[in-house]
Design brief:
The structure is a single chain. Helix 2 runs parallel beside helix 18, helix 16 crosses helix 24 (about 475-490) and helix 24 (about 475-490) runs parallel beside helix 29. It is globular, with a radius of gyration of 25 Å. The chain has a two-stranded parallel sheet. By secondary structure, it is mostly helical. It folds into 2 domains: about 10-30 and about 325-575, MetI-like fold (Orthogonal Bundle); about 40-275 and about 290-320, MetI-like fold. The chain is built from 29 helices and 2 strands.
C-alpha cells in the first residue's frame, strides 16, 4: 500500500486518487450503513415481520418482478425487431413513439389507470350508466387494484428499457450473419429466434435488469394498487412502526434481490462479446409487410404506445385543463421551485463527482481506483427507499457529533443540519444517479485522444490545468447529456424523496403522490403533467442516439465525437 501511494504521489495523481476514493466512499456509505443498522436489535418487530409481513411481501414482490420482466421482454424485443427489420405503415413514427412511455413515472401512470378503470373510474361509471347496473355484483370487471393490474400498468412504461437495448443491438448486428442465415434456408422467424435473438441476449438481459430494478424501487404504483411489496414494507416499518432497525433488515432483503438480479443478468450475458470482423457496413435488409401483416405489425407497435403514453397523457391533459385554476395554487409553484432547485443541484453535484471519478481513472492505472469506479453502478441499483435509510444514518451521526461539539465548546445547539434537510435529498439524488452521469462523462473522455493530455503536459500544464483548459471544453456535450439525465431522473424520484424530505416540504413527485393517495386524482393532473413534459427531453434525445447508433454510419461517428450520444446511452444502460 505504501509503495502504491508513493507511486501515485510521484506521478502527480495523488490528489485526484484521494478525491475519487472519497467520492466512492460517499457512494457506498449508505449500503454499508444499512448492513450495520440491520445488526442492531429491532425488539419484537422482526418476529412480527417474519410471521405476518415478509412472507406475503416476498411472494408479491417475486410475482411482480417475474410478470414485469416477462412482459417487458416480450413487448420491448418484439417491437424493436419489427421497427428495425420491417417496413409497414407508420414505422418511421413508431421508432420514436415507442420511447415515449419512458417519460411517465410508474406512480403517475398508476393513478391515471385508477382514474380510468377503478370502480369509481370513468369506464366503469359509463358502463353502469349504459346497462343500468347498480353495484359491482351486477357485472364482472378486471380488478386494477391487484398484482396483475400492477404488472400490466408498470410494464407499459418500463418496456422501453428493453426496447432501447434491443433496438441498439439489432441495429449493430452484422448484415452478413443475417443473410447467411436466410441463404441456408432459414425463414425470417427462424432467423430471429436462432440468430438475432441469441446475439442480442446480452442487451436484452441488461434491459430487463433495468426494468426489474425500477420495479423493485417503485413505491407509488404498488401503494396505489394495494400491492404490499418489500418496498412498501420498508416504508411502513420505518414510519408507521417507528423501527429503523426493522426497516434496515427488510432493506437487506431488498439488496439481496438487487444482487440476485445483477448475478442473473451477468450469467445470462455470460461475458459474451459480439463484434464485427469487417469494416464494411450496409443498411439492414428491410422486408415490406404487405396487407394484413403490415396492419398487424402497426397494431402491435401502436398498442404499447396507446396504453403506455397516449391514454395516461390524455387523462393528465384533461385533469390539468379542468383544474387549471386550482392547480396553479401557491403550493404548485412551491413544488415546482423545490423540484427544479433540488434537481439542478443534484445534476451539478453528480456531474462534478463523475468528472472527478472519470478523470482520476483516466490519469492513473491504479487497480484500486478502477475498482472503486464500479461502486456508482452498485448505488444506481440500490432502491431509493434503501438508499434513504442508509444515508440517514451517517448524516444523523454527523449531525449529532457537530451538535455535541458545539454544546461543549460554545454551549449552543445546532440541531439537524444535514439529515432531514434539502441537502440530504440532493446527496441522495447525486448518489442514486451518479452512475448515469459517470457513464456519459467516461464516454466523452474516451473520445479525447491521450495525445491531447501529453501535448498539454509538454507545454507545462498540470493535470488540473489540463482538465480545466482542455478536457472540460471538449466535454461540454457529454456534460450536458449527463446533467440532463440526472436532472430528469431527480425530478421523477419518489421513494427517497418521501423518506428524506423535511417536514411540510413538497416536490412535484411527492405532491402527486399525496394527492393521489387522498383520491384527489384530478388535482394531481397538473403536477404530473409537468413531470411528464420535462421528462420528454431526454426521451427525444435518446431517439436520435439510437437512430445514429449503427456502426459505420457517418451520423454515428459524429455523435460519438461529441460524446453526448454515447454517454446518454451508456448512462441509461448502466446495468451492462
Amino acid at each position: 500500500m505504501r509503495r502504491h501511494i508513493a507511486r501515485l504521489r510521484d506521478s502527480g495523481n495523488f490528489a485526484w486518487s484521494v478525491a475519487a476514493s472519497l467520492i466512492s466512499l460517499i457512494a457506498i456509505a449508505p449500503v454499508l450503513a444499512i448492513f450495520v443498522l440491520a445488526l442492531q436489535s429491532s425488539g419484537d418487530t422482526w418476529p412480527h415481520l417474519i410471521a405476518n409481513v415478509l412472507p406475503g411481501a416476498l411472494r408479491r414482490t417475486l410475482e411482480l418482478m417475474a410478470g414485469v420482466g416477462a412482459l417487458t421482454l416480450l413487448i420491448g424485443t418484439g417491437t424493436a425487431w419489427l421497427v428495425t427489420m420491417y417496413r409497414f405503415p407508420g414505422r418511421s413514427l413508431f421508432q420514436w413513439l415507442l420511447l415515449l412511455p419512458l417519460a411517465i413515472p410508474t406512480y403517475i401512470i398508476a393513478f391515471c389507470y385508477l382514474e380510468l378503470f377503478d370502480y369509481s373510474g370513468a369506464l366503469q361509471t359509463l358502463l353502469r350508466e349504459l346497462f343500468g347496473w347498480h353495484s359491482a355484483k351486477d357485472y364482472w370487471f378486471p380488478d386494477i387494484r391487484s398484482v396483475g393490474g400492477a404488472i400490466f400498468v408498470m410494464s407499459m412504461v418500463l418496456y422501453p428499457y428493453v426496447y432501447i437495448t434491443a433496438r441498439a443491438s439489432f441495429l449493430a448486428q452484422s448484415v452478413c450473419v443475417l443473410e447467411v442465415s436466410r441463404t441456408l434456408g432459414r425463414s425470417a422467424a427462424a432467423t430471429f429466434f436462432e440468430v438475432a435473438l441469441p446475439l442480442a441476449r446480452p442487451a436484452l438481459a441488461a434491459g430487463v435488469a433495468l426494468a426489474l430494478m425500477e420495479t423493485l424501487n417503485d413505491i407509488g404504483a404498488v401503494e396505489f394498487f394495494g400491492v404490499r411489496t418489500l418496498t412498501v414494507a420498508v416504508y411502513d416499518t420505518w414510519l408507521d412502526r417507528n423501527s429503523l432497525a426493522g426497516a434496515a433488515q427488510i432493506a437487506c432483503i431488498m439488496l439481496a434481490f438487487v444482487f440476485a438480479v445483477l448475478v442473473i443478468e451477468r450469467a445470462m450475458r455470460a461475458n459474451r462479446r459480439y463484434h464485427h470482423t469487417t469494416g464494411r457496413y450496409r443498411h439492414l435488409p428491410e422486408d415490406k409487410l404487405p396487407g394484413a401483416a403490415g396492419v398487424l405489425a402497426a397494431a402491435a407497435c401502436a398498442l404499447p404506445v396507446l396504453f403506455g403514453f397516449l391514454l395516461p397523457a390524455s387523462v393528465l391533459v384533461r385533469d390539468a385543463l379542468a383544474h387549471i385554476a386550482a392547480g396553479l395554487a401557491p403550493e404548485f409553484w412551491d413544488a415546482v421551485l423545490h423540484s427544479l432547485t433540488l434537481s439542478a443541484s443534484a445534476a451539478c453535484l453528480a456531474v462534478t463527482f463523475a468528472v472527478i471519478l472519470g478523470y482520476a481513472r483516466r490519469q492513473t492505472r491504479s487497480k484500486l481506483i478502477h475498482t472503486l469506479s464500479i461502486i456508482p453502478a452498485i448505488s444506481y441499483a440500490v432502491p431509493g427507499t434503501v438508499l434513504a435509510i442508509g444515508l440517514l444514518i451517517p448524516l444523523a451521526r454527523l449531525d449529532n457529533s457537530v451538535d455535541a461539539m458545539m454544546r461543549s465548546l460554545f454551549g449552543m445547539t445546532t440541531g439537524l443540519l444535514l439529515s432531514g434537510s434539502a441537502f440530504a435529498m440532493v446527496l441522495a439524488y447525486a448518489i442514486r444517479f451518479l452512475a448515469v452521469s459517470l457513464g456519459a462523462v467516461e464516454a466523452g473522455l474516451s473520445k479525447i485522444s491521450r495525445n491531447t493530455d501529453a501535448a498539454a503536459r509538454t507545454l507545462g500544464a498540470t493535470i488540473s490545468e489540463t482538465l480545466w483548459r482542455v478536457h472540460l471544453p471538449l466535454l461540454r456535450p457529454a456534460l450536458g447529456a449527463a446533467a440532463l439525465l440526472v436532472f430528469v431522473d431527480s425530478m421523477k424520484e419518489l421513494p427517497a424523496t418521501l423518506l428524506l424530505r423535511p417536514f411540510n416540504f413538497d416536490t412535484l413527485a411527492t405532491q402527486v403522490f399525496t394527492l393521489a393517495s387522498l383520491y384527489r386524482y384530478e388535482e394531481a393532473g397538473l403536477s404530473a403533467l409537468t413531470i411528464v413534459v420535462v421528462s420528454l427531453a431526454p426521451v427525444l434525445l435518446l431517439h436520435g442516439i439510437i437512430v445514429a447508433g449503427r456502426p459505420g454510419a457517418l451520423s454515428s461517428r459524429r455523435a460519438a465525437a461529441s460524446g453526448a450520444g454515447t454517454g446518454a446511452a451508456e448512462g441509461l444502460s448502466i446495468a451492462q
